[in-house]
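Suppose a classmate hands you a notebook page containing two proteins, each written out with its sequence and a corresponding row of structure tokens. How would you begin to make sense of it? This section walks through that situation. The first entry is reproduced here exactly as it would appear on such a page.
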Amino acid sequence: MLGGHHTGRDYADAITARQSDRRARSAFQNLVLKMARPGGAIFDFGAGPGIDARFYADRGLTVEAYDVDPAMREYFSVHCRDYIQAGKIILHGGTYREFLERDAGSRGYEVDLVTANFAPLNLVDDLPDLFAKLHVLTGRDGIVLASVLSPYFVGDLKYGWWWRNALRLWRDGHFSVLSHQGGITRRRLADFAAQCSPYFTLERVYRGLPSSGEPCPRGVELARTGRYAWIRVATCRFMILQFKKRAAATVGE
């Protein structure tokens, strides 16, 4: 994670300073382009300063975006001003609770793909409520693609906070560590699968960085790899999760 609390312009500068962060963003963006329908619609949750939103709009996608932080939205509004004025990007604000309770309205189009890059899902402790909202926002074959901090990252084993929470991770499936942004919750794959049900199914997991020379990371299908999928993502700080929307008939069963 970035040191200290960065927001707005400071965040944009910090998150683009390191090569590893730039590679992680590029890998995520390339996955989005593979999954998005040409000329389709994306909802960017936890959109931050609008770096990804502008990238998607540059490539012909319609983007709705939400971020809870006013400073992030202020920078976003400047960074994406031309697309906002053209109606290609719509930026939503308000508290997280307001976001959950806001009427989806009538867009005239369906959102094909929800994106959440650089770990906004790690800042959400009520994931079932979020997935319920995303189920409403997306079309029939909707996908959620989320980059999250991995609890399996071997590089974190040097920190005392990881070892102090190892038992909770094994027993409860998740643990939280306080930061300048509040609680950052790291979850096992099985916990994400449980949290997204009955609205979505966790289908695939990708390393947060592709292998050298590859534009996109290679995902593993969880139905095939099962409990050992975590081994494939243990050498990367981020893992990218792909959730598939469940049919409306299965929700609540």
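The notebook's second entry, a different protein, reads as follows.
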Amino acid sequence: MRQMVGKGIRLWRKAKRLIPGGTQLLSKRSEMFLPEQWPSYFSRAKGVEVWDLDGRRYIDTYMGIGACILGYADEDVNEAVKRVIDEGSMCTLNSPEEVELAELLLRLHPWAEMVRYTRTGGEAMAVAVRIARAYSGRDKIAFCGYHGWHDWYLAANLADERALDGHLLPGLKPLGVPRALKGTAIPFHYNRIEELERIVEANEIGAIVMEPQREHPPEGGFLQKVRKIADEVGAVLIFDEISSGWRMNVGGIHLLHRVDPDIAVFGKAMSNGFTMGAVIGRGEVMDVAQESFISSTYWTERIGPAAAIATIGKLRRCRVPSHVKRVGKKVMKGWGELAEEAGLRMEVAGMPALATFKLDYGEESQAVHTLFTQEMLDRGFLASKNFYTSYSHTDDVVGRYLEAVGEVFRVLARAVEEGRVRKMLRGPVAHAGFKRLT
């Protein structure tokens, strides 16, 4: 089925002239999925179904870039949000939900004693790093993984503009980041403890920032070794659970690995699509926030905490992580089997809740991935190489998804064999990292 140039595509073309980068989130750029073909905008969404501006219906595998773990427009969360909207979402006085949510987070994480809130993951990470630097009295950060757009993180690319390329998104330029921050953010790779050892030997590190798990699980006691190094050098250990939190268990994935950080940061799935971020940590570390100015009006609005309380309640009540893990394993197993049947070179990675595959065709790999997205869109799926499993992904939905994947994998295999991948694309190859759009 050939996609028409619909309202969403036309609106995206206009948006690129009016909004730098077209949208507020790099990961929602149409060029990251299917340039000149992606529907780009939605009119409504429910469960795992999305309707574009032309009324076409799709099954979504991205779930708001991982934010909606329960599914779109979840009735229980929406009911809680509508209640506080009707009662007033902002006031001169504070909302009691702030305290209720803090107590809930601390019950789930017995190692932590205090909580601060933001409304986005990137700013929550900036708050966590500010607190860590204030507590340790040191400027330098050793980090692993992707942690947002703020100056502290992009400073890594002041020394080498490719320093961040191995941490999820290549091509992130440090334009606008003060040159004085050069050398303050030093990257190391996951499961390579020797890299962190060299960093702390050569620098006075104030904080170690990392995702406790992403594409691969920790090996050889990696997290325990990181914890030991942090203790030895007096660095604050920060676990970024913005992507990994709430999916594999209720709370952070670090609880499954039995390694406690000094600070943990949450966002995305904790509030099922409503804006919410949280920074939790040991009391003596977190209390330093009172001595550093960290404050924002909309961090006190009521919708975020109300949504988070309702979301966490449903995650526990419905045992959502168990469902997510089971369904995610089914997707990953299906990918592997279908790729083998089709004769595709592919690696399956990630955790069941954040699964991914990589087609291995050298310089043509990105073109093959783009063709996958194009063919899946033709079959009614918003899909690429990632799958953010949600509670609304039923066995029936996954069965239909894998049936379509099987068809598309066979198409890809023939296209690769015949050297026709780029000829079959109806637009440019998707972007693999950060690029200008205009």
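A careful reader of the second entry would note: The two ends are 29 Å apart (CA to CA).
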